[in-house]
């Protein structure tokens, strides 16, 4: 494929990655126990946004769409984008295709913080704050413990596994001391679900996710440089340690903000970047935005399947694991070139 054809192909993929989640959002608002036509959905949304009078705003359908489905759909889109961009950034940063937010302890650290808010404070303390604090603590522990190792990248990965195990143990401790009611809520939350999404939750988390995503997307060219050797990155004028810490903190921020209200959802941040690199190559200026769009779309499609095909609420975290593991094995078996 010539350079111009590849460029046009990548540009088309980028446009599709941006537009498809928006179209899928409208389609998803129509789905559920109460089916609503696309025309009614558009009228309800336009009336609410513009303030125009509409009889539909007083109907049960409007209440369901605006207060139940819309926050759930938005959270699913934000979660998919956050996990995918975070995973793609960390994989390039550590030059390892197996790295994701789980490996560095971010997810389980943030999960422990959110669980502590639920069990110890009954959500009186914002779970987003504790989730980010504990997620950041996990990353700090990983970086501090691995500091000075001869092979820093390997040390970081091994330390991340240990720190993840530590926070998993702390999570188990919370489950042991929780009351029966809190334990039931905690157990369902840990499996990963968007069913409890509310506007107050999004008011806390959405700004954090969006700010983190915007900065990560703008840092795509820096992540490209950091994916080179440290000496090469320094020769190009980058403060390697500072930039690496900044990107890790941003990845921690977006992951923690999602985990705080949706629970622990795996495999998205590992699989989506692999699929995107197979489509557009390894340039993070393109990989990150396409990962955001594809991850958001896949997460929303998974939630739509749960809402339409099953008569009960099934945790989306289980579904992503069931689909993710064989898909990842398929990617490995189909790989023809080494990851770079």
From TrEMBL:
Membrane topology: Multi-pass membrane protein
Keywords: Cell membrane, Membrane, Transmembrane, Transmembrane helix, Transport
Places the protein is found: Cell membrane
GO biological process entries: siderophore-iron import into cell
Membrane-spanning intervals of the chain: 12-34, 73-90, 102-121, 127-145, 152-171, 202-221, 245-272, 314-332
Pfam families associated with the record: FecCD
A GO MF term: transmembrane transporter activity
A GO CC annotation given for this chain: plasma membrane
NADP is among the record's keywords: no
CDD domains, per the entry: TM_ABC_iron-siderophores_like
Domain of life according to the entry: Bacteria
Family to which the UniProt record says this protein belongs: Belongs to the binding-protein-dependent transport system permease family. FecCD subfamily.
The name this protein goes by in its record: ABC transporter, permease component
Organism: Candidatus Saccharicenans subterraneus
Lineage: Bacteria, Candidatus Aminicenantota, Candidatus Aminicenantia, Candidatus Aminicenantales, Candidatus Saccharicenantaceae
């Amino acid at each position: 494929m010539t350079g111009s054809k590849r460029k046009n192909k990548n540009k088309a993929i980028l446009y599709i990655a941006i537009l498809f989640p928006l179209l899928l959002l409208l389609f998803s608002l129509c789905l559920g126990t109460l089916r609503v036509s696309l025309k009614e959905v558009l009228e309800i949304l336009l009336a609410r946004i513009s303030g125009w009078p509409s009889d539909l705003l007083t109907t049960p359908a409007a209440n369901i769409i605006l207060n139940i489905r819309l926050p759930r759909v938005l959270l699913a889109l934000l979660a998919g984008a956050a996990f995918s961009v975070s995973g793609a950034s960390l994989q390039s940063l550590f030059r390892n295709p197996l790295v994701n937010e789980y490996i560095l302890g971010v997810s389980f650290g943030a999960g422990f913080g959110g669980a502590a808010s639920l069990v110890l404070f009954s959500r009186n303390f914002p779970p987003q704050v504790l989730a980010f604090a504990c997620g950041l603590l996990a990353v700090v522990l990983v970086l501090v413990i691995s500091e000075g190792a001869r092979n820093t990248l390997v040390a970081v990965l091994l330390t991340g596994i240990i720190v993840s195990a530590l926070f998993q143990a702390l999570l188990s401790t919370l489950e042991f001391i929780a009351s029966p009611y809190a334990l039931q809520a905690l157990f369902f939350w840990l499996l990963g679900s968007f069913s409890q999404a509310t506007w107050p939750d999004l008011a806390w988390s959405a700004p954090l996710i969006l700010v983190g995503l915007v900065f990560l997307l703008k840092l795509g060219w820096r992540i490209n440089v950091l994916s080179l050797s440290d000496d090469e990155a320094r020769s190009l004028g980058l403060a390697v340690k500072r930039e690496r810490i900044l990107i890790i903190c941003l990845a921690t921020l977006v992951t923690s903000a999602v985990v705080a209200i949706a629970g622990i959802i795996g495999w998205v941040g590992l699989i989506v970047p692999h699929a995107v690199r197979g489509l557009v190559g390894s340039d993070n200026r393109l990989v990150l935005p396409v990962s955001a769009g594809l991850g958001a779309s896949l997460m929303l499609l998974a939630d739509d399947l749960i809402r339409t095909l099953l008569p009960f609420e099934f945790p989306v975290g289980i579904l992503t694991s069931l689909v993710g593991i064989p898909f990842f094995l398929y990617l490995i078996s189909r790989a023809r070139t080494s990851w770079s």
